[in-house]
From TrEMBL:
Keywords: Hydrolase, Membrane, Protease, Serine protease, Signal, Transmembrane, Transmembrane helix. PANTHER family: CEREVISIN-RELATED (PTHR43806:SF11), PEPTIDASE S8 (PTHR43806). It holds the Pfam family Peptidase_S8. Residues 93-332 form the Peptidase S8/S53 domain. It comes from Streptomyces calvus. Belongs to the peptidase S8 family. The chain crosses the membrane at residues 374-395. This is Serine protease. InterPro entries: Peptidase_S8/S53_dom, Peptidase_S8/S53_dom_sf, Peptidase_S8_subtilisin-like, Peptidase_S8_subtilisin-rel. One of its GO terms (biological process) is proteolysis. One of its GO terms (molecular function) is serine-type endopeptidase activity.
Length: 415
């Protein structure tokens, strides 16, 4: 092999080695587990305890979720993705009551004090998930204002749809829905999903809608499935009821988690992995995931829209949330666009007319930014290696020629 050919081979080999060494970080960014998602600055993600959706049903005694000793150091990807800092300049959901059907809500929880009304056993949130979700809907963030919920001016009506351990049943959910309707809640968020349709529950949902409530429900149960058995797609309730906004969880890249239960009829997707909020005990933070988390975000968005547009019907609010969502296989919730977008006449073609202030959907998720950064590092690193190899090949030959052009090195002046 001639010297130039050997040089070219060495150069290509070096480039391939550089790519092999640099590519793995870019490939594995999106595979990070929910409790270790990349931070907004691309560094190691926040390590916080997980918030369960239910407690062990087989345990002899109930051990409530303990207070977290950890606090979040930065705003999580979900709030950046939903553009909550900018949204709060246009509304906070003040004057709107959101009924939350779940494990209950601790009235004195950090960031919620004074704005929670809990009926009966709903004031005792042993699991902690209900309080976690209430923080996403209407929390102020306490000492961490950048961890505020979507509608920090709204009020929460806490209702139990589960037993003390977080197990849901149709009777409890039905009773909670009727209590929310009687209380005049503008938005009803159902954080649980039942496998079977129930006639009484169907009637309760219909009554709530007739009274003007926006009803939002988790598209699937929490927690996600485990094991390798394939679970067929099915409809869960009350998310499958007519007029109910069915909300599913999504990852930073917009896809549903691999472990998510399959279902159909989803109306919206919202962040549902690596989401930060508080709990019923202490001032610490947890990480939560699942369709219940996504439904809480959608309920907060509905509260802000209801406060900003009090004359709109429940159907108009629901339409606004879906019509202004970021277009994808499953439309992705965009609270800022829902509040600021000027919609055309119902049923008109051509979609929504944007407000005078440009409305953009910013994908600022930490994982996506980290992946882009990793890809940039690959390109820059490969270019740097190529430059070094080129210099190593060319400079010695130039020195041998006395830094003269190759044609003049032999004194002939020929090519």
């Amino acid at each position: 092999m001639r010297a130039p050919a050997r040089g070219t081979a060495r150069l290509l080999s070096g480039a391939s080695l550089a790519a092999a060494l640099l590519l793995p970080p870019a490939v594995t960014v999106h595979a990070a587990p929910a409790d270790r998602l990349p931070a907004a600055d691309g560094k190691k993600g926040q390590e916080l305890p997980g918030m369960p959706s239910a407690l062990d049903p087989e345990a002899d005694q109930v051990a409530c979720t303990p207070a977290s000793k950890e606090t979040a150091k930065k705003q999580d990807w979900s709030r950046q993705r939903l553009d909550l800092d900018r949204l709060h300049g246009h509304g906070s959901g003040a004057g709107v009551t959101v009924a939350l059907v779940g494990t209950g809500v601790a009235p004195g929880a950090a960031g919620l004090d004074g704005r929670v009304t809990a009926q009966g056993a709903a004031a005792d949130d042993c699991v902690g998930q209900g309080t976690f979700l209430a923080g996403l809907i209407a929390g102020t963030g306490g000492d961490s204002p950048r961890l505020a919920g979507v509608a920090p001016g709204a009020k929460i009506l806490a209702l139990r749809g589960t037993d003390e351990r977080g197990r849901a049943d149709a009777d409890r959910v039905t009773t909670a829905l009727r209590a929310a309707t009687d209380a005049g809640a503008s938005v009803i968020a159902v954080a649980v999903a039942l496998p079977d349709r129930d006639e009484e529950l169907t009637d309760a949902v219909a009554d709530a809608r007739r009274e003007g409530a926006v009803v939002i429900a988790a598209a699937t149960p929490d927690p996600p499935r485990t094991g390798s058995d394939e679970i067929p797609s099915r409809t869960y309730w009350p998310a499958g009821e007519p007029g109910v906004l069915s909300v599913a969880d999504m990852l930073p890249n917009g896809a549903r988690p691999d472990s998510a239960l399959p279902t159909t009829g989803i109306d919206l997707a919202a962040p549902g992995a690596g989401v930060v909020s508080g709990g019923p005990r202490g001032d610490g933070h947890y990480l939560g995931a699942g369709a219940s988390v996504a439904a809480a975000y959608a309920a907060g968005a509905a509260a802000v829209v209801r406060a900003a547009r009090p004359d709109d019907s429940a159907d108009a609010v629901a339409h606004r949330l879906t019509a202004t969502a970021y277009p994808a296989d499953i439309p992705q919730l965009d609270p800022y666009a829902a509040v600021t977008t000027v919609l055309g006449e119902p049923g008109a073609s051509g979609g929504a007319d944007r407000a005078a202030e440009p409305v953009t959907v910013r994908d600022t998720s930490a994982a996506d930014r980290a992946a882009d950064r990793a890809g940039l590092f690959v390109a820059l690193g490969t270019a740097a290696v190529l430059a070094v190899l080129w210099a190593a090949f060319v400079i010695p030959r130039a020195r041998a020629r006395g830094w003269r052009p190759a044609a003049a090195a032999d004194g002939t002046g020929r090519d």
